[in-house]
Each structure stands twice: as structure tokens, then as C-alpha cells.
Design goal:
Elements lengths: L22 H4 L8 H10 L7 E6 L9 E3 L2 H8 L4 E7 L2 E6 L4 E5 L4 E4 L9 E8 L5 E6 L5 E5 L3 H5 L6 E2 L5 H8 L6 H5 L5 E2 L3 H11 L12 H20 L43 E5 L2 E5 L11 H11 L2
Parallel strand pairs: 2-9, 10-11
Antiparallel strand pairs: 1-7, 3-4, 4-5, 5-9, 6-8, 7-8, 12-13
Helix pairs in contact: 2-8, 7-8, 8-9
This protein binds zinc ion.
Length: about 325
């Protein structure tokens, strides 16, 4: 089933008995944004650093409200007059750190965007932070499906309640981190990489691209992975995510993900396996790229050069070539 072009209004027909479409496709959603998209949002809203919050309001929106904690009036009261001290990111969340150490944490989930420019539609505008004293007058949170969340944390609260449950950030993760968290796991490596308590920031799309570059079969159980395989996974993670950040993330053909200025990313042009089922493998020339379902999500991989044991001769070369780009 080609799901490109699906929108929030997409209503799937009932699947036939035995028909196993992954959940993400039945719901018409895509598993973005992930770390590169959220990091792009973070960088995009850096111009708000130093600005003062004038007010926070919920724009008129007829859709089901998103989760905002505390309630909007309390959020406004507790942050009014504070300055934005820095913009951070933890896994797939953007953090606005205020000058009194409070933290506004925005989690875009499926379709949320953090914007400084006009949003894609006015219908789905969920939050407006009015600012003064800097180059921009407002920071917006837009969310088509409305699964995103905005939360205010007092000093230290975020670390205690959320941060401590997240694994090391995928850009910082080491072989020892992964082996400690997943080395004994019987889960398949592709499924395990999506576990945010093991490593934070990787989702369905980048897990497929990372395992392709690493030359590791996504069905391989963590407990049997060798140290060289973990090393290749860690190298591939950094290479793929940094390249994706450089290209401001992936905007799939549904067009939902945009950067802070409402422009598309371009990493979709570099996808090697994601959504490429049936294509010849761009590395070994064989393949063809296969799509399977793992934990109700699509996985794309090359059955010829992604192996359960050892490595295809071209894998190390491909990693070195990518590293030097
Ligand atoms: Zn291949």
C-alpha cells in the first residue's frame, strides 16, 4: 500500500482478515519528527534566546485541545516577564529554559512543529508565546493531529520526572552505553533502537537508515550482536543523524514536517532504504530492498548486505565514505 500523500483526514477501509498493515500506516501517520527534525526545530528557534515572554495564549482552535500543563492561564502567569535563557533538546523534545530555571518542554510527537514563521494552516495552531526585546515577536506551536504536548517544569522537576527515564542522547551514545542497556536483550535490534529509555532520539525512519549503513540485519537479536556490530551501529547512528541535521531533517511526501521557518527539510533525498521497498540496493546493487513489519511498524532493509553475522565487504567502506563526506 502506498501511503504517501495521506493526511489526517485519511480514513482507512477495514483491512481484510489476515491483512497485516502496520499501525502507523493504518492510522495514516508517519513516525517523524525524530532527533534530526527536533534538533532542526531547536536551532531554528535560537533567535528567541534573550527575549522576554509577554504572554502565552491558546489561539482559537476548534480542534480537540492538545495537552498543556499546567492549564494555559497558569502557564501564562508563571512565565510572563521571564526571559528565554537558552534552547535545548532532550531526545525528541525542545526545551525552552527560562531565566528562573523553569523549563517549557515542547514534545512535537507525530505532527507538531515549533515555528517562528507563519504556520502551514491557522486551523491547527495550538500555542502562541508572545515575545519582546528580540528579533522575533512570537514562537508558535502548530500540530495537525494534536498529539503533541507542552509542559512547564519548575527547577529540577524535568530531570527528576522525565529526563532520568530517557537513555543517552543518540548523538552522544557510546558502544558501552548500548551494550549496557541492550546487550542482554532478546529484542530485535531495530525494535530495541526505538526504546527511548535505551537511547533517546531514534525513531522508525532513522533506525532503518542506521542499520542499513551499519550493515546489520534489523531482525538480529541484541544478545547475539558482536562488539564490531555494536561499533558499526554507533558509528552509523552519528553519521546518519548528523547528516540528517545538516539537511534539516526529512520532509516526507505528506509534507507535514517543516523547519522553524516553515520550509521543507531535504534528507528525504538521501534515504537509502526507508520507503524504498522493491528498489535495487544502492550499496551492493542487489537487494531488492524489503519491507517487513516489526512491532507493528514497517522496517526496510537489504537482505543481501545487512547481515546477522559478520559484515558484507562493502559495509566498512560505505561507513568510511560517509564519515568523510
Ligand atoms: Zn544491499
Amino acid at each position: 500500500m502506498d501511503t504517501r500523500g495521506l493526511t489526517a483526514s485519511y480514513k482507512p477501509t477495514s483491512p481484510s482478515p489476515g491483512h497485516q498493515e502496520p499501525v502507523e500506516q493504518l492510522s495514516g501517520s508517519r513516525i517523524v519528527p525524530e532527533l534530526p527534525e527536533v534538533e532542526t526545530m531547536r536551532r531554528g528557534v535560537l533567535p528567541t534566546v534573550g527575549s522576554q515572554i509577554v504572554a502565552i495564549e491558546r489561539p482559537p482552535c476548534l480542534r480537540k485541545p492538545i495537552s498543556i500543563r499546567p492549564r494555559i492561564d497558569a502557564l501564562d502567569r508563571r512565565t510572563r516577564g521571564r526571559r528565554v535563557a537558552s534552547i535545548g533538546r532532550r531526545g525528541k523534545r525542545v526545551l525552552l529554559e527560562l531565566d528562573d530555571q523553569q523549563l517549557i518542554v515542547i514534545e512535537p510527537r507525530m505532527t507538531g512543529l515549533v515555528l517562528l514563521a507563519d504556520p502551514p494552516t491557522t486551523d491547527h495552531l495550538r500555542l502562541r508565546i508572545q515575545l519582546s526585546g528580540g528579533p522575533v515577536s512570537e514562537l508558535l506551536f502548530w500540530d495537525r493531529r494534536g498529539l503533541g504536548t507542552v509542559q512547564l517544569f519548575g527547577p529540577g522537576e524535568f530531570d527528576a520526572s522525565v529526563c532520568d527515564r530517557l537513555g543517552v542522547d543518540a548523538l552522544e551514545v557510546t558502544v558501552d552505553d548500548l551494550k549496557r542497556k541492550l546487550g542482554e536483550s532478546r529484542r530485535e535490534i531495530k525494535v530495541a533502537l526505538l526504546d527511548q529509555s535505551a537511547v533517546a532520539g531514534i525513531g522508525n525512519l532513522y533506525a532503518a537508515e542506521i542499520l542499513f549503513l551499519a550493515g546489520v540485519d534489523p531482525r538480529c537479536r541484541c544478545e547475539i550482536l558482536t562488539r564490531p556490530q555494536w561499533q558499526r551501529i554507533v558509528k552509523a547512528t552519528k553519521i546518519v543523524l548528523l547528516k540528517a541535521i545538516e539537511n534539516e531533517g526529512s520532509t516526507l511526501s505528506d509534507g507535514t514536517y517543516r523547519n522553524a521557518l516553515n520550509a521543507e527539510g531535504s534528507y528525504q533525498n538521501y534515504h537509502r532504504v526507508y520507503d524504498r521497498a522493491g528498489n535495487q540496493c544502492p550499496r551492493c546493487g542487489r537487494g531488492p530492498i524489503r519491507r517487513i513489519v516489526q512491532a507493528q511498524r514497517s522496517t526496510f532493509f537489504c537482505p543481501s548486505c545487512q547481515r546477522k553475522r559478520g559484515a558484507h565487504p562493502q559495509v566498512e567502506l560505505a561507513i568510511e565514505a560517509q564519515r568523510n563526506l
